[in-house]
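User: Please fill in residues for this 387-position structure.
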């Protein structure tokens, strides 16, 4: 079924109309099936309408989807209506549905056609895009489908001639962005996109010795890092309690269960837990990947040892190490990663004053209000263009 394109004037045109140098596009509406977690979309009126274009899966994880969801929750709290246009693994739609957002799956081979078609058909006012794969030309064409285009970016590796660029990483202000003269920027940890529960002031007591460790490496674990961290904690700290987060896209659950049973009573596996903040607050120390979770740990004042699992996490880790909220334990592919991590575990194990300093530095850097600030800016920009 072809999807008509609705121009800003409200006039309906046939799908074969020119879309800025791309003639003859054919676009089908492709909702997530019920077993993928989607719901049928309803036309939205009298509210600001925001479309999120992102994706995720076992290979790239869920970081992009989760930070978009954090922003969508903040937009909803301020009266906007959001929907998701998603590529990647079929399970990704479920994460939007769990939070009550409509979702449409985008086929990568027809990405731009379907994205613009959906945005025009649903009369969206703003588009938030979050992917390293999108090109400057892609963003330019998105600008013809919405009044505001915001990009979540932490690399500054391409020209971003868009309305708004958001980078909440600790090293964001050191990057050299190339945008249009009217492009606005929200840079630094005051704009990191976290879920609303992380805005609460944490209650934390720094123990003299580490008694409980949290392991959380992300939504997927293609490098089988989690089981290695479990083993290294036991070797370095003995039978301390371990809370191990098993992401929704993990494929090594049986291996983790075997390791947990080997150290009976000390290790608890948490499958895609709802209360991540509670687990962080209960931990004396966290071992984590180098992505979005590092800022959640900072917001809860949780000292952390981070392992870089992707090159794009480098800026995060450098900035947070400089801020003093975590230790960079190494890269997931380092041949000597075990010795590096166990050294840091032993070093921090008996050093309560150092862990207390890391906790203070993290909370001082991240107050958890970033999503609300970004949402407010997007709405102000959109309303200025609607008036």
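Assistant: Residues filled in for all 387 positions:
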């Amino acid at each position: 079924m072809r999807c008509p394109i609705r121009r800003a004037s409200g006039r309906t045109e046939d799908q074969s109309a020119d879309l800025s140098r791309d003639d003859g596009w054919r676009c089908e509406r492709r909702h997530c099936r019920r077993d993928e977690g989607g719901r049928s979309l309803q036309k939205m009126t009298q509210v600001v309408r925001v479309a999120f274009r992102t994706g995720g899966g076992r290979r790239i994880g869920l970081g992009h989807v989760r930070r978009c969801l954090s922003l969508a929750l903040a937009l909803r709290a301020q009266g906007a209506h959001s929907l998701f246009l998603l590529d990647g693994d079929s399970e990704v739609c479920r994460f939007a549905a769990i939070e009550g957002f409509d979702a449409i799956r985008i086929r990568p081979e027809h990405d731009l056609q379907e994205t613009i078609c959906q945005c025009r058909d649903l009369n969206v006012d703003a588009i938030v895009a979050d992917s390293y794969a999108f090109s400057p030309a892609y963003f330019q064409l998105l600008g013809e489908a919405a009044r505001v285009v915001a990009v979540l970016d932490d690399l500054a590796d391409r020209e971003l001639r868009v309305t708004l660029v958001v980078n909440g990483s600790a090293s964001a202000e050191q990057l050299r962005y190339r945008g249009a003269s009217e492009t606005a920027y929200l840079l630094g940890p005051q704009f990191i996109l976290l879920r609303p529960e992380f805005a609460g002031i944490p209650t934390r007591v720094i123990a003299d010795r580490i008694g409980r460790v949290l392991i959380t490496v992300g939504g997927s674990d293609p490098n089988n890092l989690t089981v290695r961290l479990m083993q290294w904690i036991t070797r370095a700290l003995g039978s301390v309690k371990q809370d191990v987060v098993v992401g929704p896209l993990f494929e090594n659950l049986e291996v983790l269960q075997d390791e947990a049973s080997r150290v009976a009573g000390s290790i608890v596996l948490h499958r895609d837990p709802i209360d991540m903040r509670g687990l962080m607050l209960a931990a004396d120390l966290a071992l984590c990947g180098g992505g979005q979770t590092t800022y959640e740990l900072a917001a809860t004042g949780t000292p952390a040892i981070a392992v870089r699992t992707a090159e794009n996490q480098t800026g995060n880790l450098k900035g947070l190490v400089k801020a003093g909220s975590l230790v960079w334990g190494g890269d997931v592919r380092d041949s000597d990663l075990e010795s590096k991590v166990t050294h840091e575990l032993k070093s921090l194990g008996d050093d309560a004053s150092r862990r207390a300093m890391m906790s203070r530095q993290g909370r001082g850097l991240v107050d958890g209000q970033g999503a609300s600030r970004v949402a407010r800016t997007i709405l102000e920009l959109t309303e200025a263009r609607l008036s």
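For context: The longest strand covers residues 49-56.
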